[in-house]
Structures
1.
Amino acid sequence: METRELICINCPLGCALTVTMEQGKVVKVEGNTCPKGKSYGEKEVTNPTRIVTSSVKVLGGNIPVVSVKTASDIPKEKIGACMAALKTVAVKAPVAIGDVILKDICGTGADVVATRNVAVKI
Amino acid sequence: MDRYDLIIIGGGPAGLAAAISAKEQGVTNLLILERDQELGGILNQCIHNGFGLHTFKEELTGPEYAQRFIDRAAELEVPYKLQTMVLDISEDGGEKTVTAMNRKDGLLVLKTKAVILAMGCRERPRGALNIPGYRPAGIYTAGTAQRLVNMEGYMPGREVVILGSGDIGLIMARRMTLEGAKVKVVAELMPYSGGLQRNIVQCLEDFHIPLKLSHTVVDIQGKERVTGVTLAEVDENRKPIPGTEEFYSCDTLLLSCGLIPENELSAKMGIKLSRVTSGAVVNESLETSVEGVFACGNVLHVHDLVDYVSEEAKRAGSHAAEYIHNWKEEAIKETWELEVEPQNGIRYTVPQTIRPEHMEEKLTLRFRVGAVYKDRYISVYCGSKRIFHKKKKKMAPGEMEQVTLQKSDLTAAPGLDKIIMKLEEA
Amino acid sequence: MYDVVVIGAGVTGSAVARELSAYQLKTLVLEREEDVCCGTSKANSAIVHAGFDAEPGSWKARMNVEGNLRIRQLSEKLDFPYKQNGSLVLCFEEEGIGKLEELKERGEKNGVEGLEIITGERIWEMEPNLSRQVKAMLYAPTGGIVCPFKMTIALAENANVNGVEFVFDTCVENIEKTAEGYRIETEKGSYETHCVVNAAGVYADVFNNMVSKRKLSITPRKGEYCLMDKKAGTFVSHTVFQLPTAMGKGVLITPTVHGNLLAGPTAEDMEDREGVQTTASGIAKLSQQAKKSAENVPLSMVITSFAGLRATEKGGDFVLGEPEDAKGFYNAAGIESPGLSSAPAIGVYLAKQISEQLGAEKKTDFVSTRKDIPCVSEASPEEIRRLIEEDPAYGNVICRCETVTEGEIVNAIRRPLGARSLDGVKRRTRAGMGRCQSGFCAPRTMEILARELKKSPLELTKTGGKSRLLTEV
């Protein structure tokens, strides 16, 4: 039996989790306040994932960059590749929240979407 | 001269939520004055996620969170002026005068019944920290760096040392790393981090960035651009320990060493400020020592969650609405008011005073503790009677706590001049 | 071929250049930094000394007392902030009163007016926050405070408007005597001139020693300072000195002309002529000494600390004029305190000598006045309305701590010898000088600088040279 101490990063509460594993399988998550904490604990020890937030260049916008995020969490080890992919992207204004900037980034299945509106530069 | 019922100073999360709430309560003659070129305040540069879990039950980025409020304000047709700087607020016989200026209107002198202060806060700069060394380019507060990277599309530098483990510092450690910079270390003067636990995990640990607690910067090298900084360990009095110096070469030093509510306007107006929070002293209605002037958000006390700012601002908005609706009707000067006295580990509470007769059925008091505590009870005493008692596994100065008081508990003890809030051993 | 080349665009070089510009002379100022006022002139006590301290008959005494009068007039002509707030010298022991009397006598010999020794309760009536340990104090009503940035910039700008050329980012490497005068070699080419003015601050000995056998030796003496928030600006109303020692006038506490409170300087002899770093020990010393004058000096309200180097010459006095063996080479060397106060007098003195030697006539079209950038934070409502009407940019506040507008920043960039860096804007407008120390306004000022100078933000610097502010993503 193996245990791992984690801090849940789902929300700012930051619950201290204790995950118990047996032969690579999670048998127990303790310390969580909500169900999200349990699934975070399970996932973090087997297949850790993160939401990635960044920004990409905007052409012809009233501001030079637009903030973006992965619409769902992606495997942690793909973060670097995703950042590299985002560097090559430039979008044309206007941009609206939710616009897909990059589909299925790095084969993660997650789309990258805009998180703010950018108007056309007047 | 233009006359308003309510002027809200600041169009960030606090100002927006306050304006929306006031409008929803029937205040139609209101105006937001915002100094930046768009509404949303500092949220516009906080492109990371983690906002809105309480308010919207989903995880949003800063700009998304702001947009929800901007959209709601637009729906309600809340008027606002952008790039408008308030220069002065004064009060005469209840009516307030707000002096502001912008490109279009020139100098504005506006009269209003009520004011909501929502100016936010600023970062403590290098100068105020008295960090010795040269004064080269490459020293930025974390928030300035955040703006440069996330809104202007530039990097402040490539090799970074961060002093202070406040949330913005932690967030920027990750952000700079993702953008290809090398963040060598985060140093924290205190023996604990000032940021949220989750940020230490996902911003530092995820990227193997070391966090050095009880460390500070004792020298900055570089005559034109930063070439390195020297860290040293500090003792329990936060004084550097000779012999522990360690040099880090870098071209950038980011500072995340605390936020200070921006209360210059409030102080000039004669509003009583708290020495602990640097914000106004307020009562249960979030009203300051000047009648009809309310405060909310980071100008009142520095929050760690925008959700709480929105909730607080909403209350400020509805109390301001109430004040406007009762304008000149009831002059209740002599109201029973009691003080909330923080003791034993509790640094401050907001509000600091309560007028039980004006309380809603429930009142949320927010507070911070002065050190890291494990397994303590938060207790509130009304005389000898304990009216609140709750155990917390862990409390830290970086994380705001709250208790909820019942009106009936306070009105049951008429004449009391204070209630006491303190931490107690389990 | 120039008539005069001035080395150094600090307050002394700028004052000399301004006075020379009244004559029909072809004058050039060479400056190694990117702007005027980048050395000692930007990091000092910002005091206009009354002139009681220097040895009677010394250059320091003569130039200080005359300079004090001239600054008052110049501040009106050239529109820079000056205030005659009076200064005080404190003594903490009964035995020190004799020394105060000596100082008073010396001052009177130097021609300082209105000196008075104050004892008893009047001390605290004049300055309620002074220590109760004060036994007596010398009051010099002619002491004043000035903005050293704006004063230097005003002098240089006025010189420039009157035809003096300024070349920045150019370091003098060698000076050679020629048949007609001197050849000044720089990293970017050489300049021929009849006369040279050596106003090179802590490097003045180096240049003197290139042309004269009468060697000078300058030791940079570092002074560290703490500048406090405007909230602390009324802690004292006079400039408060302590009885001077061998190392200088000691730590003073003074309001600044912009309403902050300043404490400093320490005094530490240095080898490094660029050693303007602050130190923990220096700040600690400063704090300890300042508290001697006033226990409650609000050092916790510090918004920035900085250090400057005084150019202390071993002879102890200013070195002014031509060395015997180097005709046409005019020194303004060893300009330590009271250098700022003396600069206008030094300017007049050297310009007179040079114009006589070269037989230069006065110009008939000399422009003797200039107007500074409008200051919105100090303007009346009517003035603000008028400014915004003329140019809406004066309604757009960029620096919120000091209420500096886009109009002022643009003006600072566009005017003669305009700002080219973040610090250049700061010294001209005070944008970034306030309590947040440019946290909010730096990105916006950069945007304006890039736009006005037609540069990429990546090229912008804090203070010229390699002090780049940004890198690419």
Note: The longest helix of chain C spans residues 339-358.
2.
Amino acid sequence: MKRYQSTPAVASSEGRLADNIIYFARTLRKAGMRVGPAAVKDAIEAVLTAGIGTRDDFYWTLHAVLVNRREDHATFDEAFRLYWRSRELVEKMLAMFSPTAPDTREKQKSRAAENRVSEALFEGQRKNQPPREVPELDVDARFTFSGNEVLRQKDFAQMTAAELAEARSAISELRLPDDEVKTRRFRPDLRGHRADPRAMMREALKTGGDLMLPKFRSRRVMHPPLVVLADISGSMSEYTRIFLHFMHALAEKRQRVHTFVFGTRLTNLTRQLRHRDPDEALAQCAETVKDWSGGTRIGETLHEFNKYWSRRVLGQGAVVLLITDGLERDDIGGLEQEMERLHKSCRRLIWLNPLLRFDGFEAKARGVRAMLPHVDEFRPVHSLDALAGLCDALSSGRNARFDPRRMQNQFEFAVG
Amino acid sequence: MAATKSRPIPSSIDDTVQLLADEDYVADRSLATVLYLSLKMGRPLFLEGEAGVGKTEIAKVLASALGRKLIRLQCYEGLDVSSAVYEWNYAAQMIEIRMEEATGKSDRGELEKNVFSEKYLIRRPILEALQGETGAAPVLLIDELDRTDEAFEAFLLEILSDFQVTVPELGTIRAEEPPIVVITTNRTREIHDALKRRCLYHWVDYPDAKRELEIIRRKVPQANQRLSAEIVAYVQKLREIDLFKVPGVAETIDWAGALNELDKVALDPETVSDTIGVLLKYQDDIARISQGENARLLEEVKAELTAA
């Protein structure tokens, strides 16, 4: 570090390094990573600190500072490859800034023509705009693997002010079953049952220790995390808008809500729904999800959820809200096991079924039979024209009607 | 460990690799880079990864390689300030009040100062970590941060950015030299971006075959070469299968140790199915492997090793 601080060339070359890193960070931002100005500053500092000698070290140095979610690794990798594509660009920069890379500089001198080319590229990038090669994650290629998977875009009608007000009031009245857990934190409580020695001690000093009055505290209560898994396949498509509004309103009101939607694939919408404006949030969801109103693969998507997400979002006694009609297209082989695993990894599994109100529902429901034994509650939704209907279905207290075993018996009776 | 003198931090990435290797920790270049940067820039190191890939081990190795004290804060749900940072010794405080009373002192200011003095302060890991001497700052390991709740995470923000703690009755305690902070998480929930932003992030992945073999060689030196090669090849194959939980490095080391204890010199289907519980911890996974896949995997392993 000391060495290049003493050389006079440093000021200008540091500027170039900074420019390139700034452009690189901008490229990452365009590709969807969240890289703030502070991270860019850190990146420059890190590169100067590391005094790196190889492309690899340079890569991992930037990686250490700019990537802070594992999901971003692939994006970073691609962006790095494209941005620093010309090998000479990196090597040349390293030669300039790092005291440990004298060899590369010599090598470069022997290949003068290439050197000029890279210089031109370097200049061009430096002078103006961020480089053209913004890594576009090519998604379409992968999405053609299945014939019966239909990928559609979807537009949602904007929410009217009245609707919005209604949705908020419906959510504020929502009382989920089993929705409170005791934490191990405390709050002062006059009628509590646990002594609060620290408060007593502080209070006692007011009187110089003459008078020590008992103080109490009790456990704080909070909502457990809520995970919503909603079906957006063709059979459920008319309700999708309601679900999304419901999930958005929930995420707005409560702290720990994770939302997923599934049709033929599983999509995590938690971040999209964090957007305050519901229309904006829904627009982002519409953009993210690729399989609106397509087929259903409940078993497969649940498998994906169990494998990749359950251990990340079901901690600390989460309640799972599964919204689906249970009409499974694929064979139901894996479905039962996946439901069982899901059931065993959460505190309470509530299945909300909008099709339960239709007659003749039982006949086709092989998937339903496979899923029923593994839910804690099975609730019908009677009116799905408005959000209030959904909240109603969830708010009514614990009731024998919602016992899945009762439903199960009915099926067995119907099937004979 | 207490007797060893503290050593300065490494001066380059190569030094860092060497430092870890001297303590039998086989790190890849990316990990060494991020570790070096975190030491040099004084930033906490945030390690995320599956269970059993050696996250906690890094902090331990770092502490012993640098000759620093290791202070470990194991996180759990409901962890609060009184068990993470400090607590007052109430019983002793009451005695102090009683004593003052007995000697007839009645100056309130004086009494308060005596009762809430450092003498009665019980130091918990974080406060302890802030009291390192210059050049010998301890390594603070905040283990499995994902087990605590968001409230504690928010509290950590102050400590990780300023390395100071405020005790209302005493004032602000600031670290003379910030501790070397290593945070690990198993990703059972997402840690807030604000906290991650203050750290250098690294995803600790499963090692490749070459590095895993080197790890086995160092950790279970008694195991013979052929057996180790087979073990590593087998575990690497297992990681390619769609299992619910694939074995980590810790499991590989355990397995190598177990097979060594059983005096095995090579893998055979029977031994593998008898000892598979060391590697796989879910019944579904075990059932799947013992139903046929086991033999196929072993054949592949043997074929590969003879070809090589």
Note: The radius of gyration of chain B is 24 Å.
